[in-house]
Amino acid sequence: MHRKGANGNKSRQRLLDAAAEEFALYGFYQTKISSIVARAGMTQPAFYLHFESKDAIFAELVDVFQSQLSELVENSRIKPGKAVHEVKSEVQAALVSWFRFLSGNPALTKVGFFHSRESVHFKARLADMLKEKMALERAAGYLRTDADLGFAAEALIGIIERLTLTRLLPGRDDPVHLAEQTRLLLFDGLLANDG
């Protein structure tokens, strides 16, 4: 089904990019194959050289998004033996990479993180991954023993989800600032220091 060669790969990518834009703007049900190919500057027969259906291209976009974000989360583990300031720095670096990914292709983020039917389950899987990582970090002595790690992981996903929707994608804030503020909230809280 897939066309071979550099031109075929470029055409396929143009269709994926156009589909992400259309799905992000209009949702799955309102998006038509005709609007995808028009945005891509291609024809419907060209679409069917690369994808069986609208469902197939949507599923691929969701899979690409979820695979890439899962890999980022999976690769963000703090190794034992770090000082507290190093832990804070590594957490902030991980958050920056996540927010940069989410802002790197806003249409794909809207499709994979918000519009797909699987997004709720995907975010639950991300929270489970974070909980497992936090358990390792607790064992290394970085996290409090009385903290509910499941709650913390769900809260972090909720923070990322909301900030992505209200600040990152609209361009109201950048990944570095969002990561810094999230890290500050998680590690230092909101209370003023008594001195």
TrEMBL record:
Entry annotated with the keyword DNA-binding: yes
Location of the HTH tetR-type domain: 9-69
DNA-binding region(s), residue ranges: 32-51
A Pfam family it matches: TetR_N
InterPro entries: Homeodomain-like_sf, HTH-type_TetR-like_transc_reg, HTH_TetR, Tet_transcr_reg_TetR-rel_C_sf
PANTHER family found in the cross-reference section: HTH-TYPE TRANSCRIPTIONAL REGULATOR BETI (PTHR30055:SF234), HTH-TYPE TRANSCRIPTIONAL REGULATOR RUTR (PTHR30055)
Protein name per UniProt: TetR family transcriptional regulator
Source organism per UniProt: Paenibacillus terreus
